[in-house]
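Late entry, written up from scratch paper. The run itself happened at the end of the previous shift, but nothing got recorded in the book at the time, so transcribing now.
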Amino acid sequence: MSASLRTKRTREKERMPLERGVGKCENNHTGSFGYPTRPAEPYPFCHKCGKPMVWTCPNCQSPLPDDSSELLEARFCRYCGTPYFENGEPSAAPG
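Output as recorded:
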């Protein structure tokens, strides 16, 4: 994907709020919002450990992968390469 197309998509995503999405915390616990039986809005903290949840890339605001296995493995944004967490690694395996 060209850099200009990535930039255009990023700008489009910044203008549109997420209606539903998936996220994870630093301990790699996953969550979702906007789906049936799930909270309507993103929640700020993990319900399992209390760590802050990440719903979008901190740099380009692209959503995290919605495929569950890809989400668990994802450490960096697939659009800009920014780590989702400070050290680029979730701190623990889910559990």
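The chain has one domain: 3-73.
(Scratch paper discarded after transcription.)
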